[in-house]
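Margin note from the TA: students keep mixing up input and output lines. Inputs are the sequences; the output is the structure of the whole complex. Example:
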Amino acid sequence: MTAGADMHALVAELYPICRSITGDGLRETLRLIGRDLPLQVTEVPSGTEVLDWTVPREWNVRDAYVADAGGTRVIDFRRSNLHLVNYSVPIRKRMPLADLRPHLHTLPSHPDWIPYRTSYYEEAWGFCLSQRQLDALPDGEYDVVIDSTLAPGHLSYGELVLPGETEDEILISSHVCHPSLADDNLAGIAVSVFLARTLAARARRRHTIRFLYAPGTIGAITWLARNRERAARIKAGMTFTCLGDGHPFTYKRTVAGDADIDRAAAHVLARGGTPHQIIDFFPYGYDERQFGSPGFRLPVGSLMRGRHGQFPQYHTSADDLSFVSPDRLAESLRTVTEIVDVIDGNRRFRNLEPYGEPQLGRRGLYRAMGGTEIPDLQFAMLWVLNLSDGRPTLLDIAERSKLSFAAIRAAAELLEQHGLLQPV
Amino acid sequence: MTAGADMHALVAELYPICRSITGDGLRETLRLIGRDLPLQVTEVPSGTEVLDWTVPREWNVRDAYVADAGGTRVIDFRRSNLHLVNYSVPIRKRMPLADLRPHLHTLPSHPDWIPYRTSYYEEAWGFCLSQRQLDALPDGEYDVVIDSTLAPGHLSYGELVLPGETEDEILISSHVCHPSLADDNLAGIAVSVFLARTLAARARRRHTIRFLYAPGTIGAITWLARNRERAARIKAGMTFTCLGDGHPFTYKRTVAGDADIDRAAAHVLARGGTPHQIIDFFPYGYDERQFGSPGFRLPVGSLMRGRHGQFPQYHTSADDLSFVSPDRLAESLRTVTEIVDVIDGNRRFRNLEPYGEPQLGRRGLYRAMGGTEIPDLQFAMLWVLNLSDGRPTLLDIAERSKLSFAAIRAAAELLEQHGLLQPV
Amino acid sequence: MTAGADMHALVAELYPICRSITGDGLRETLRLIGRDLPLQVTEVPSGTEVLDWTVPREWNVRDAYVADAGGTRVIDFRRSNLHLVNYSVPIRKRMPLADLRPHLHTLPSHPDWIPYRTSYYEEAWGFCLSQRQLDALPDGEYDVVIDSTLAPGHLSYGELVLPGETEDEILISSHVCHPSLADDNLAGIAVSVFLARTLAARARRRHTIRFLYAPGTIGAITWLARNRERAARIKAGMTFTCLGDGHPFTYKRTVAGDADIDRAAAHVLARGGTPHQIIDFFPYGYDERQFGSPGFRLPVGSLMRGRHGQFPQYHTSADDLSFVSPDRLAESLRTVTEIVDVIDGNRRFRNLEPYGEPQLGRRGLYRAMGGTEIPDLQFAMLWVLNLSDGRPTLLDIAERSKLSFAAIRAAAELLEQHGLLQPV
């Protein structure tokens, strides 16, 4: 539970910061992510062409509010950064409520919640507020102030690479552009950071593991534009989103649908024994849609609890610190660690005594007295021996035998030690 | 509903004619089918070798009856052409009821209905009547008269070809040999004729559409014998039968089972939202079995409502004008039009901006303000962009996205107009 | 029922013999199996290297017992050969019950049954007895006598080969090493022997049929070691075990899972109309695991009623003559005969009139008067004609048509006689 509490503390620390797809809030977030890890931050200038897109101007906000005639702030960015439509252009103007209204966004179905809205690629401004706040606003004149800047600057993203024995990569990607939304995606960030710490402490990794912390869509596109060739090394990946809430896990498959990561996630979730869903890829959601675009087709799935757009708190002020819990974060961390372990430990072997079963007894690998019960590890050895003709992977064998990947992997290691198995 | 009423009127006009696999009734039927369409009629002489078969002698009937001793017609071809076993040889003879009985066919399970029977390839004669009629016949002598001719003549069939941009063909085949049976197959004929009128009015057709109106089995075999090479151009096809009754649709797959026509029919029927069945090919039924024979293996399925031999009215006098309705005919016409539209509109595209998602916003193809609901067309665009790497067809994309073919096709056209997509 | 009674009599005759993986009991068993059949017995010397194994010393027992201080035999091999742990080394010693106890094996969950235990590859000795026997033993001194020999000798196995028109083989393998256990595997042996008699009486066999009677594991391994090249001729096979008890059939698939034998067994069991199970291969059970090892990968499944280790009487004295019945043995014989018939009769044909349907009527193969019901054989002919383009086998056609293999085979023979079909 320590890891769960620590992850929740990180979420709480990041929560108040006003993040966007560019700007100082994003930079501060990367700084906190990278405190204990060798994070490398890249700054890409506004105006840079990235694939079909252009890096936008950098957005920063000093202050934003709507004040009534008496000067009282009736909507105040300082109370919640969700009040301001993200990427609002600056404005300073007095106007009647009737003129202000088209710029005000509420959620009538949840009258106490503030919605989260953005306007990155269309110049606009606006405020978000609860329906009750809006209903309480009397007619009259209001001072509208958005003290923001939209100016040439940079888009920032962070990368952390844990080298492995091969250049084959596993990619873990989290979007880092949402402001005060705890589950989407501070929870994903926290699980990613703690997975990085866990794996960094390992003595051996077969794969190189790359952690990417970039703003949604434009950040992934910028990274892809700058890493076209390196991207081809990615053999498996996941985007992490909404990993702290109380919903059961949902894993969203890659475009191909049967990539190693799809099977590893399905295996781990199935053996976890708790309810979960596996859903097919669809070209909406998070950055798996960029990694999976036809020019790249990287095998990147997505792991989440609450699903994109499918729970009422999604993209509202109700996605707050109470919506995520240490226990769920810890369960998420255990699960993603197991999935990465399956990918990293998945290999092919060849049985070196393939004619009949080798005599395990004289190697001390078999109970001596013939009875009727067989322990799991012995069963796992028989499966590995029978199927290891050089083609199936350990995950194939685990799936077919209905034994855990861990048992199959342990059996393979034991057989390799006894000279009965050779990696392919 | 106009089309429905018009189709029912055509069924009613064709109903009284005594059709068979040859003869003047068949010719008159083709004349009525071709009134408003450029139907081309072919006459093939009796004795012509066609594949493993021979075109039979032509059969025509002037009169046929059984009269009692007092001269009263107790079974009369003029009242219903079903009373005469189709292809009966001529006879003029007085005989006791005991000798007549083996030539009389009834349906004891439906004592008011007249069955439909044929004896095309075995020389025989007979009458069909209701069980009640038979039960009412007193013993005694009867005059049996069949004033028919079986003589060298021709087998007739009609073809209507709507040229398209390519020589790839869609075949719509209806059998035209059944006498006074409304559903089997005047309904199929009527839907075919009105589909032809609908498609003839179109400005563009990618496929050439061929409508075949031929007698069952021997007609299809004759057409195939005379069109061995042309047949290979058929990329999709359906036989139309029993399309006017009240049963839900049944689509019978091609021999291959996964041809384009199979998938198009399944897609349209599934999205129609009404109960329906998809059944596997079996080598019985209508002319799909000839088109699908191993020498041709044409991808021809079969669409019907009531299934061959599976409803009590099948091949009886109860398959009359009241058994088919304008509404059902109209629904059938809508459905077959949609199926043909899927086949004709199904193409492959290549995404010209395949690296990441293209920025739809700056092309005016994307809502500006980030919220949580996405309209279908936009979703369709994202699916088309993601999957269009040159391999999947629009139908593949519709199936995978669970969106309608129409939405996927509209999205593809929009993206093609904006230079984001190129046909393969 | 004669065959059932005869098989039960053979089981009863073999029951008292003390079999093991070597020795005179095994030899006597092979002698009785071979009485009416040209069985060829092979003797392989102890110490022979066979694949990863070595043929062990030969084991024979003259006597074995535990006697109390008064000289009364409280455990006596002469009463049941299950009392002695199979392959026990010789011993002759007086000892207190406390020292004897670790060598005594019981089944506390079934206190009246004697378990069956072996120690082939670890030098050990022991006795098996019922829990009640054990509970009744007073403390005190006991004389332990095992008058066995473990000495250089031979491992014996028997083979019966019925030559066929081709060298392609069907293998029927039964283990013959278990002592007084009626179902496992005297029932399997009896069904194999009577299948051999049935097939030997046939005029034609396309396949060569090989019946193997060898001790479990080491016997199969020895046979494989001596027949590496011949083994490749095996196109289908089954191990027979536990075929006399009251459980429904279970067929265990080959490693590949979709071999001809898997499909033949599934077809016959499904059409048998009684409950049955088809289970996937797993590398435990009987000698299918040796035949299926990666170096050989022979398509050998396993047919059984009671499943290996899954019923309480398994490997206990309750697997006695009352546990198997003539009726079940007879049903097993019928079933295995049908499975072999499917394999042996499964061929590919080419339709010689592939363009359209051939006119069956003029060949006398079709009812003359058109009605609505079609007999099975006629339907089978249409299926065979439509699908026989040289690729599908008769079993493929039976599966697709949902008709019996027997009907499809009869149709193919009729069509072949009429010159419409040619074997490929």
